[in-house]
Design a protein that fits this description.
The protein has 276 residues and is of the alpha/beta class. The chain has one domain: Spore Coat Polysaccharide Biosynthesis Protein SpsA, Chain A, CATH 3.90.550.10. Strands 3-2-1-4-6-5-7 form a seven-stranded mixed β-sheet. Strand 1, helix 1 and strand 2 form a beta-alpha-beta unit. Helix 5 runs parallel beside helix 8 and helix 7 runs parallel beside helix 8.
Length: 276
């Protein structure tokens, strides 16, 4: 564990934001109140404005005048994960994390994640694993089916026992995540969260997933609706398949030290069918 002079852990928290002028003030108030009271962390907050057309940037600048721990990075609508990656590369502290701009998971949960970080490369929250926590309220049956379905497909494709790879609440060792980022190759922004996990698993690194209290918001920009939700699911499935094939190719080249046998067998069968 790396600590600062006051024996607190130095943590960079990255928050991507796209047109979040309505929710961002409440989120910033929440994280600042928490950071002023936590006995565990020294925190810097990196807000990545992903090309917003509203007052997101103006609001962040107003808070920067109040608290020097807040930093602003401007991007040109590069996408959710690319915005997070931009923040990772600018982080100053040895431990880095990310959370959503709607504060669906309270930052106090970072203290629970950190308990497992010494023995793991990635520690992530989960909306599916509940442990002793109550079920998430307000989540539609459709979204529950989609969440479980994608988790099952993720396991069948990669044999990574991760139930909620897309959650926007994770913690990493900075040097480890920067190393993993240097190995990314998929262009699809929406699949990069899964690719980070697959690459970490393929490199033999350890991943821990723990239940977190999650406040579901159907109005969140992270929750697609109607036809758009079906399109998002289809694009995710296609991207997962491309990641699956690419991971197998990387494994053959020796760039990954492990890949699920189940995935290897299925890919080989698929390639044989194409050749025959």
């Amino acid at each position: 564990m790396i600590t600062s002079k006051n024996n607190k852990v130095s943590l960079s928290i990255i928050i991507p934001a796209y047109n979040e002028e309505e929710r961002l003030p409440s989120t910033l108030d929440t994280i600042l109140e928490w950071s002023n009271n936590t006995s565990l962390f020294n925190v810097e907050f990196i807000i990545v404005n992903d090309g917003s057309s509203d007052r997101t940037s103006e609001i962040v600048c107003r808070y920067i005048k109040k608290d020097a721990r807040i930093r602003l990075i401007e991007e040109t609508h590069v996408g959710f994960m690319n915005a997070i990656i931009s923040g990772f590369k600018q982080a100053r502290y040895p431990y880095v994390s990310n959370m959503d701009a709607d504060c669906a998971v309270h930052p106090r949960e970072f203290e629970n994640l950190f308990r497992y970080l010494d023995n793991n490369t990635i520690v992530m929250g989960s909306r599916i694993l509940r442990g002793n926590l109550p079920p998430i309220k307000g989540k539609s049956i459709f979204r529950r089916i989609i969440s479980w379905g994608l988790a099952l497909i993720f396991y069948l494709f990669f044999k990574c026992k991760v139930y909620d790879p897309q959650i926007g609440f994770k913690m990493y060792h900075r040097d480890s995540i920067l190393h993993i980022l240097s190995k990314l190759s998929m262009e699809h922004d929406g699949i990069k969260s899964a690719e980070i996990i697959v690459k970490a698993y393929g490199l033999g690194l350890s991943i821990k997933e723990i239940p977190v209290i999650y406040q579901h918001d159907e109005n969140s920009r992270c929750v697609p609706k109607g036809i758009k939700s079906i399109k998002v699911v289809w694009e995710a499935l296609c991207a997962l398949f491309r990641l699956w094939v690419h991971s197998y190719q990387e494994y053959q080249k020796g760039n990954l030290i492990r890949l699920p046998i189940r995935g290897v067998a299925l890919i080989e069968l698929f390639l044989l069918k194409i050749k025959s």
